[in-house]
Write a structure and sequence with these properties.
single chain, alpha/beta, 6-stranded antiparallel beta barrel
């Protein structure tokens, strides 16, 4: 078996050493500054002042403090804002690594070897995002005797998204590095920032500009993690790429099958419908047979203190404040075209600042009041900059057109199954009719609300994923737009 290539042998880079990250006396500077902030903030913050009137939170606005102190307050906030990532990196690097306890027995009736179907000692690349799931995945593989190589993707600028629960940048990269050090496995950081922007973020913005509701997590898996990262794993001589996704890969009569996770509350199969049979043959998902509670407990028992209690990552990691429209306007400056809000009869009932601010099923933020019944967004007509609104009953949809289907169980004749049209909803009974050019017509036996173009429609047979594609149009929305 060949040894693991060093960073200079292919296009990767390791996390920087301490000397390149910490400026001289950084820890002393932060400590002194923190003490000064604490001392001054005791005077600036009305709630910290003895005898301050309860609820008086706005005294800074009324000239009660000197301009010098206000200037310092702004200086302190700027310092903390700009030094946030650097300080987090420093803490991660200065924290002593704790060796994991790989002697901890696995949960009952579970062994990664059962799901990996690989010979002992085979090389496996573990995709490490810096969270608890991917860290436990790497630790389990190491304990089972596999030759584990950790790989972390830097997908965006750490300063661009400081949202709690984000992943794949900043602190998460350093957490992954610490776990790899504790496990004594090689670790690489791949700079995928530019390709992530081109293949995921720009597609996200373009989809919103078309009046759709995109799912960037699917695109990330499809175009980045299960594409380039898989190629890198093969370059490293790995027999498989393992991830911390909650989904099961089960051997079937015609090859590996993709199934829902045992833990329904954590199941991620909806986001992996675009996984091709060839990719599924190379992928492994060691956590698919475990509930999340056991994964966290196992992380603590294994001594992975860096990540054991770490919050779960959010779906859209690159949106810093949850305002999708800000990202769209940044990447597509002309996407926010003002227009009319119309009812189902085509009558103008209001104005809007751009369809990028809306999604099908939305009720709040319409700026419409005084109606007998609440109004919801029924359809988005981006070409004419129109938002169509109507009563909740108009959201019900039975017929869906699906495009760009990825078949994991090829079908040529109509068949009955269950489908999911939103990640948070349970599967519902439907009849699927395959059409040419990777399309299909879906007839829901029970109407679903808020079926939005840009979302996915995934087909299930029990726990097995048969395939899925992108919602192109729902009949109710088409009639409303006309």
């Amino acid at each position: 078996m060949t040894c693991v290539p060093q960073p200079h042998e292919f296009r990767t880079y390791r996390t920087k050493p301490v000397s390149e990250i910490l400026r001289p006396n950084l820890s002393l500077t932060i400590s002194d500054f923190a003490q000064r902030v604490a001392r001054e903030f005791g005077e600036l913050n009305p709630q910290k002042r003895r005898g301050a009137p309860p609820g008086n939170r706005n005294r800074l606005k009324h000239g009660r403090y000197t301009s010098a102190r206000l200037g310092f307050y702004r200086e302190a906030r700027k310092f903390i804002r700009e030094g946030y990532v650097l300080a987090a990196q420093a803490r991660a690097l200065l924290r002593p690594a704790r060796a994991p306890n790989l002697a901890v027995p696995p949960p009952p009736d579970y062994s990664p070897a059962m799901t990996l179907d690989l010979p002992k000692g085979a090389r496996v690349v573990a995709a490490m995002s810096g969270g608890v799931d991917s860290s436990v995945t790497a630790a389990l593989l190491k304990r089972e005797g596999y030759d584990v190589v950790g790989v972390t993707l830097q997908l965006y600028d750490a300063g661009a998204a400081k949202k709690k629960g984000a992943c794949c940048a900043g602190q998460d990269i350093y957490d992954a590095r610490r776990v790899a050090e504790a496990l004594a496995i090689p670790h690489y950081v791949l700079d995928y920032e530019q390709r992530f922007k081109e293949r995921v973020m720009e597609d996200f913005a373009a989809s919103y500009a078309r009046g759709e509701t995109p799912i960037p997590c699917v695109r990330c898996n499809e175009r980045v993690k299960f594409a380039d990262l898989m190629d890198t794993a093969r370059e490293l001589g790995a027999a498989a790429l393992a991830t911390g996704h909650y989904v099961q890969r089960i051997a079937g009569a015609n090859g590996p099958e993709l199934h829902r996770a045992v833990d329904d509350s954590r199941d991620q199969s909806y986001f992996l419908f675009a996984t091709t049979p060839a990719q599924l043959d190379y992928l492994r998902f060691p956590l698919g047979g475990m509930p999340k509670s056991e994964v966290r407990a196992l992380a603590a028992e294994l001594g992975l203190v860096t990540v054991a209690d770490k919050p779960d990552s959010q779906d859209i990691c690159f949106v810093p404040d949850g305002k999708y429209s800000n990202i769209v306007e940044k990447l597509k400056p002309n996407a926010a075209q003002p227009g009319e809000i119309v009812n189902l009869a085509g009558e103008t009932v209001g104005r809007h600042d751009g369809v990028i601010h809306f999604t099908v099923g939305q009720r709040k933020g319409l700026g419409l009041s005084g109606n007998a019944d609440p109004l919801f967004v029924i359809a988005l007509d981006a070409a004419n900059a129109r938002v169509v609104v109507g009563p909740r009953a108009a959201l019900a949809t039975r017929t869906i057109n699906v495009r760009d289907i990825n078949w994991l169980a090829p079908a040529s004749e109509p068949f009955d199954c269950t489908v999911k049209v939103r990640s948070t909803r349970p599967p519902v009974p439907a009849r699927v009719t395959p059409l040419p050019d990777r399309a299909a017509g879906v007839e829901l036996l029970t109407p679903e609300e808020s079926v939005a173009p840009g979302q996915a429609c995934v087909f299930y047979d029990g726990t097995r994923i048969l395939g899925g594609g992108w919602i192109a149009r729902a009949q109710k929305q088409r009639l409303a737009a006309e």
